[in-house]
Amino acid sequence: MKTFENYSLLNNNTFGIDVQANYFIEYDSVEELQQLLRSDLLRENKMFHIGGGSNLLFINDYQGVILHSKIGGVEAVEGTRTKVVLRVGAGVVWDDFVAYCCTKNYGGVENLSGIPGEVGAAPVQNIGAYGVEAKEVISKVECVRVDNGEECTFTAAQCRFGYRDSVFKRDWKGQYIVTAVYFQLTKNGVPNVNYGSLAEEIKKYPEVTIANVRDAVLAIRHRKLPEPKVLGNAGSFFMNPVVDAGKFKELQGKWPSIPFYEAGKQFKVPAGWLIEQCGWKGKSVGKVAVHGSQALVLINKGGANGLDIINLSDSIRQSVRDKFGIDLVPEVNIIFG
Questions:
Q1: Which of 5, 18, 253, 256 has its CA 20 to 30 A from that of 232?
Q2: Of the given ranges (52-56, 144-148, 202-206, 321-325), which has the lowest mean pLDDT?
Q3: Closest to 222 measured CA to CA, from 133, 127, 114, 130
């Protein structure tokens, strides 16, 4: 376990916002986490748990304790001729886990290649990309309860996954810390390449394999998304809005070429397209900007603070609200300190 005081979080958030935390603590095991939760330090200070910092926006210095998991390990705990279940520590870097699976030819997470962050965030956020969501492969989640340190295990059904959502973000927000995640994957599985841009990219490869899908996804992401170490960002800042059939019919009547994805009886509209139609793509405002290749990405050009990002976000949301009657919801977790 490592404890730091007056710790700069500059390297712990991909937006590159230079804020400090009163305390920053990294732990290596469930036992260390339980010890921390019983400590006077956490009883006397507010606490916030982070992963890789890829989905966070700090507005001010954090007046409390930031916790970070270093629990590692990837272990096969079940297996059949066609399936394997892997238990993965919450502190494992997500893309390292995906790379491992692709090397083993375990299918199910290859479309999620290149997503920044750590495994512990996958069930909380129900991360997704290129037609696949984490909920499709998560079988259960191990957690520690914050108020008493009790170890708990929840099934996928109990996690109540939704679009970029789970019970950990709503009813149980702040009540549990994820320590390990179980993934059920398919040995030598057939990849899902139906998503538009991936379907086109994979045509450049001689065959559709798990490894080639990973390479194709990484190639798309490299073209569309800026490197956080160069331009601070948190990937997609907004969730794609989901509208009912009536609202979609209204939108399609005004904008016949509007892109969409059917989601049951509802319709998912790309937030990036909405933002681009409002003229924001590539636009700079002081030290922040909307990325020129992907309008969903807000970037820190250097030296911006959290309020700069929030102000740009609010302006974009107002434009989309005025033009389309849709309220964009941030995907990023905003921390006011």
A1: 5
A2: 52-56
A3: 114
Same domain, 265 and 208: no
Task: Write out pLDDT tens, residues 138-193.
Answer: 999 999 999 999 999 999 999 999 999 999 999 999 999 999 999 999 999 999 99
Query: And the tokens for 141?
Result: 């989640």
DSSP state of 203: G
Q: Write out the DSSP string of 81-146.
A: SSEEEEEEETTSBHHHHHHHHHHHTEESSGGGTT--SBTTHHHHHT-EETTEEGGGTEEEEEEEET
Q: What's the Rg (C-alpha) of the chain?
A: 20
Same domain, 83 and 129: yes
Range of the domain at 21: 2-69
Q: What is the pTM of this model?
A: 0.90
Distance CA 29, CA 282 (A): 44
